[in-house]
Design a protein that fits this description.
Layout (H helix, E strand, L loop, with lengths): L1 E3 L8 H5 L5 E2 L14 E2 L9 H5 L5 E3 L9 H12 L31 E5 L3 H13 L3 E6 L7 H4 L11 H9 L4 E5 L12 H7 L2 E4 L5 E2 L12 E3 H8 L23 E5 L3 H11 L2 H4 L6 H10 L3 E5 L11 H7 L5 E6 L18 E6 L3 E6 L6 E6 L2 E6 L2 E4 L3 E2 L8 E2 L4 E2 L1 E2 L2 E3 L5 E7 L2 H4 L7 H18 L12 H9 L6 H18 L9 H7 L6
Parallel strand pairs: 5-6, 5-8, 6-7, 8-24, 10-18, 11-12, 11-18, 12-14, 13-14
Antiparallel strand pairs: 1-4, 2-3, 9-19, 15-16, 16-17, 20-21, 22-23, 23-24
The structure holds NADP nicotinamide-adenine-dinucleotide phosphate.
C-alpha cells in the first residue's frame, strides 16, 4: 500500500497514472484545490507504485518505508475515505471511443508561427508553459525578474520542505524545449532597464502574466511599521535567500535591564504562518541541513527564538492552516505545541521572557491584535481575546494574513482584491473591456489561495481560453520580426540570463551545498548570481 505524505503538491500527476482510480479528490471532484493533500484509498491501492513514480515532489511512499515523522499519514489517507464514504475508488472508466482514460478537448486548427510571452516562472507559469507546449506549436519566451526560476517554489516554500521543491525538476525539462526561450533577470514594468507591457503586447501574439502575489496585506493597526514588525513576505524571502532582502527582521536583542524575550508573535494561522513559526522555533542545527539562507541561520542561532505565539482571530476549527501542516508541527524535535481555544479559557501571562528551557509553539485563538508598541523597536503587542486585553512581550511581530499581487504599470489592477483586472483569466482594461491577447494566471488572477497543484487547472483553463481566442481570430497578430524582442531586451537589460546561465547558477549552488552536506547554498546577492551565470563585471 502506498501513502501520500505532507509534501503533496496536489498537481494530480498521480491521479492520471493510477490504474485503479484510488487517489482522491480528483480534479473533477469536490474538495480538489481546497484539500491539503490527495489521499490513496488503502482498500483499493494495488501497490503498483505508478503514483510514486509520477509524483513530482517525492510525496508518495510505500507504507512500510515511511519514516517515524510520516507514519501519521497512513491514518490521514485512510481517514479521508472513512469521512467521505461517497468517494468511490476502482478501475478507471475507459473512454469507449479512444480507449484512453483521459479526455482532452480537441485542439482546433491554429495558425502557424504563434509567438507568446509568459511572465513568471512560479507554479502557474510552469503549468501554463506545459499546457502551451503540449497543446500548441507556439514559440514561448519565458521572462522572470529574478535570475533563477521557480517563483514561490524557490522563494516561498519553506527550507525544511525540500520534497515540495521537486516540482521544479518537471518545469526545468520544459525550459529545455527548443520552442522555449528563457530570459531571466528581466523585469516587466515602466522603470529604467525594464520592459513595458505595451512592448510585450507589440512583440507577441499573446502575453500571459503569471506573476503571483508577492506583497503582504496590512493589518492597519498602530505600530505596524515599527522596526521589528515585519511581513511574512519579507521574512520568508529573507530566510529563503531572495536577493535584495539582506537585512532581515530586526529581532530585538535586548539589554541587561530589558532582556530579549526569546519570543516571536505571528498574526494569522494559515499555512504561511505555520511555515514561519516552524522556521523560527526549530532548533538551528536542524535547519542547518536545509537550503535556508546562511544570513537567516546566523541570526536564528544568535537570537535563539524558542517560543512563537500564533494569533487566530477565530476558533481553532476555523483556522486557515491545513491538517497535514498542523500535524507536522508536533513532529519538530524538542518543540511542544499548545493550544488556547476556549472563549473563556484563561490566557496565561506572556509578560515575561519565554522559558529558555523549552521550545514551544502556542496557538492563541479568539485573539485580535490591537496595537504594536516599543521604542525604538517592537517590544510588545496588545491583543484582545474573549476575556480581555493582553500584552504579549515579544522581540518580533510577523503579520501573515495573506498576500496581494504587486501592480505592474500598464496592466489594469483591481486594488480591492489585490489581483490583476480580469474576467476568468482574460485581462480587462479600465473600462472593463477584454484586452485581446492579454491573460493572467494563478494567484495574480484569482487571489492567493491554494497550494502549488491548485494552479495547474487554473493555468490550463486560461491556456484553453487562449486557444479558443486564437481559433476564433480574436487575437491581433504581431507585425514585429521574430528576433526584434530579443534585440530590444539585450539593448535594454545589460545582464539578461538565458537557460545556460540559469543552469550555471543552479550547478554552483548545488556544488556549494554538497561541500556542506546541504541540498544547495543559495546565492543571495544579484551580483553573485549574475556572475555565476557567466556575466563578468565591466
Ligand atoms: P491564508 O491561508 O489565507 O491565511 C491567512 C490568515 O490570516 C488566516 O488565519 C486569517 O484569518 C488571517 N487574517 C486575515 N486577515 C486578518 C486580520 N486582519 N487580522 C488577523 N488575522 C487575519 O493565507 P496564507 O497563510 O498566506 O496562505 C496562502 C495560500 O498558500 C493558502 O492557500 C495556503 O494553504 C497556501 N500555502 C500552502 C502551504 C503548504 O501546503 N505547505 C504552505 C504555504 C502556503 P481568518 O481565517 O479568520 O480570515
Amino acid at each position: 500500500m502506498f501513502v501520500i505524505t505532507q509534501s503533496c503538491c496536489s498537481d494530480a500527476a498521480c491521479v492520471s497514472v493510477c490504474p485503479v482510480n484510488c487517489i482522491h479528490p480528483t480534479p473533477e471532484e469536490r474538495g480538489f484545490g481546497s484539500s491539503d493533500i490527495l489521499h490513496i484509498d488503502p482498500e483499493a491501492c494495488i501497490d503498483c507504485g505508478a503514483c510514486a513514480d509520477a509524483c513530482p515532489v517525492d510525496a508518495i511512499y510505500p507504507a512500510d518505508k515511511l519514516g517515524t515523522r510520516d507514519k501519521v499519514f497512513i491514518d490521514i489517507n485512510a481517514d479521508f475515505y472513512k469521512n467521505n464514504p461517497d468517494v468511490k475508488s476502482g478501475w478507471a472508466p475507459v473512454d469507449e471511443e479512444s480507449g484512453s482514460t483521459v479526455n482532452y478537448p480537441d485542439v482546433p486548427k491554429l495558425p502557424a508561427g504563434l509567438r507568446v510571452a509568459l511572465v513568471g516562472t512560479g507554479p502557474s507559469g510552469g503549468y501554463a508553459l506545459r499546457t502551451l507546449l503540449d497543446r500548441t506549436e507556439a514559440q514561448v519566451t519565458v521572462i522572470d525578474k529574478l535570475p533563477t526560476p521557480g517563483g514561490l517554489v524557490r522563494a516561498g516554500v519553506a527550507p525544511d520542505h525540500p520534497g515540495t521543491k521537486g516540482v521544479l525538476r518537471g518545469f526545468d525539462l520544459l525550459y529545455r524545449d527548443p520552442r522555449v526561450t528563457m530570459m531571466t533577470n528581466v523585469t516587466v514594468g515602466d522603470g529604467p532597464g525594464e520592459i513595458t507591457p505595451a512592448e510585450l503586447a507589440e512583440h507577441f501574439d499573446a502575453v500571459f502574466y503569471a506573476v503571483g502575489a508577492s506583497e503582504s496585506r496590512r493589518l492597519g493597526i498602530p505600530g505596524e511599521d515599527l522596526p521589528g514588525s515585519t511581513s511574512a513576505t519579507d521574512l520568508v524571502a529573507w530566510y529563503n535567500g531572495v536577493p535584495g532582502v539582506d537585512a532581515g527582521p530586526p529581532l530585538r536583542r535586548g539589554t541587561t535591564d530589558d532582556p530579549a524575550t526569546g519570543r516571536a508573535v505571528v498574526v494569522g494561522t494559515g499555512n504561511v504562518a505555520l511555515d514561519v513559526a516552524r522556521i523560527l522555533v526549530s532548533p538551528p542545527d536542524l535547519l542547518a541541513t536545509t537550503d535556508i539562507a546562511d544570513r537567516a541561520l546566523d541570526i536564528l542561532r544568535e537570537q535563539n527564538v524558542h517560543e512563537v505565539v500564533l494569533l487566530g482571530r477565530r476558533d481553532q476549527a476555523s483556522a486557515a492552516y491545513t491538517a497535514a501542516e498542523y500535524r507536522a508541527l508536533s513532529e519538530i524535535p524538542g518543540v511542544d505545541v499548545e493550544v488556547i481555544d476556549g472563549l473563556d479559557d484563561e490566557v496565561p501571562s506572556f509578560a515575561e521572557p519565554a522559558d529558555p528551557a523549552r521550545r514551544r509553539i502556542v496557538f492563541l485563538f479568539h485573539s485580535s491584535p490591537e496595537e504594536i508598541t516599543g521604542d525604538p523597536q517592537v517590544a510588545s503587542i496588545t491583543v484582545r481575546t474573549g476575556e480581555g486585553r493582553h500584552h504579549i512581550a515579544t522581540d518580533l511581530v510577523v503579520r501573515s494574513i495573506g498576500y496581494r499581487s504587486t501592480p505592474i504599470p500598464g496592466v489594469m489592477f483591481d486594488d480591492q482584491r489585490g489581483v490583476f483586472g480580469n474576467v476568468d483569466g482574460r485581462l480587462v482594461d479600465e473600462t472593463g473591456g477584454i484586452v485581446p491577447g492579454g491573460y493572467v494566471l494563478g494567484w495574480a488572477k484569482r487571489g492567493p489561495s491554494g497550494g502549488i497543484g491548485a494552479n495547474k487547472m487554473c493555468a490550463t483553463s486560461t491556456v484553453e481560453d487562449f486557444i479558443d481566442d486564437v481559433a476564433a481570430g480574436r487575437l491581433k497578430r504581431t507585425e514585429r520580426e521574430p528576433g526584434a524582442f530579443g534585440a530590444l531586451v539585450r539593448k535594454r537589460v545589460r545582464t539578461v540570463i538565458g537557460y545556460r546561465g540559469m543552469r550555471a547558477i543552479d550547478r554552483q549552488e548545488r556544488r556549494r551545498g554538497l561541500e556542506q552536506g546541504r541540498p544547495r547554498v543559495k546565492f543571495t546577492q544579484m551580483a553573485e548570481m549574475v556572475g555565476a551565470a557567466g556575466w563578468r563585471r565591466t
